[in-house]
UniProtKB/TrEMBL annotation:
NAD(+) binds at residues 179, 199, 204, 266-268, 291-292. It comes from Thermococcus radiotolerans. The gene is tdh. The keyword Metal-binding applies. GO terms for molecular function: amino acid binding; L-threonine 3-dehydrogenase activity; NAD+ binding; zinc ion binding. This is L-threonine 3-dehydrogenase. It is an enzyme of class 1 (oxidoreductase).
Amino acid sequence: MAEKMPAIVKTKPAYGAELVEVDVPKPGPGEVLIKVLATSICGTDLHIYEWNEWAQSRIKPPQIMGHEVAGEVIEVGPGVDTLEVGDYISAETHIVCGKCYACRHNRYHVCQNTKIFGVDMDGVFAEYAIVPAQNAWKNPKGMKPEYATLQEPLGNAVDTVLAGPIAGRSTLITGAGPLGLLGIAVAKASGAYPVIVSEPSEFRRELAKKVGADYVVNPFEEDPVKFVMDVTDGAGVEVFLEFSGAPKALEQGLKATTPGGRVSLLGLFPRDVTLDFNNLIIFKALEVHGITGRHLWETWYTVSSLIQSGKLNLDPVITHKYKGFDDFEEAFELMRAGKTGKVVFFPHKG
Ligand SMILES: NC(=O)C1=CN([C@@H]2O[C@H](COP(=O)(O)OP(=O)(O)OC[C@H]3O[C@@H](n4cnc5c(N)ncnc54)[C@H](O)[C@@H]3O)[C@@H](O)[C@H]2O)C=CC1
Ligand SMILES: CC(=O)[C@H](N)C(=O)O
Ligand SMILES: [Zn+2]
Ligand SMILES: [Zn+2]
């Protein structure tokens, strides 16, 4: 096996990243080495690439980027008895402590000592990568690597969409970025109708339609609240799923939700948000959920089954595929410009 490999590395505390040759790592106790078959870009990778305030406070270069992955186990570290060479895995990126109050209540998704690989340690934008065995998820052999790598972000979307009843429910999704698009796929596969998507980018509204949105609206040109009221005969939607992180979208979504309806919030807001809580939430008796990470491991079972059911329309979400990492800068710049859905790399060119 090769001793060196190309990897996308955050080499300096500045904008960008570099494709460099690094040593193929050795798995330590409790770890496995995988051959990376597919890996996809998350919005968090983009923040690390851009070196925004959050990245500056958290990332310690030099570090291999990336955390969404599908790969084959090629070496097993000491003490690992749950995996063997040849296993086809993806990975939960949150490394949880198992000891804190949240973990001891089986709320691993809110472990207070969470570490994230590709964020707090080397990641998977490389030909080979280390995965902690406790974070590995075994995939069925037949699952395409480009779908298997999407399971981690799909977990975010599943927890958002399935935080309450969805089948047959009118649904508003604000934001059709990569996660919102996955949300649309999950909502449609789960029987939501009609699914209305509010998204300012024309490119992403078109993607939303391809994934299965029943209606799309540009919130910068039309009032999405009026649009929703027209589609729902003045009732408002039963379910509002926020995937944009835009304060205005949150307010519009709350206004467009029917009294007694359900609101699930995944998007992260860039600043504190001011809202008329009395009229938009309390007097409407809305059920509001904050969504973070994925439930371990219930969400992974759901995601895997949804993919295997064949009902998730993922192909239109994957807009860009790259063999190798040579064009990684193009991929990041396209994503920054909002001209992509999910971007997938296949590190091995052969
Ligand atoms: N809670 C959690 O565990 C996680 C939350 N996130 C957050 O989820 C959100 C979605 O992630 P991505 O799809 O990667 O982000 P993204 O930034 O690519 O997508 C956001 C989309 O919202 C659209 N948008 C902007 N203003 C809008 C408005 N007023 N109304 C409707 N849409 C509007 C944008 O055009 C864009 O297409 C982000 O805020 C991200 O930080 C991401 C991962 C995990
Ligand atoms: C930090 C991340 O990007 C990760 N996908 C998560 O779910 O927390
Ligand atoms: Zn991520
Ligand atoms: Zn914990």
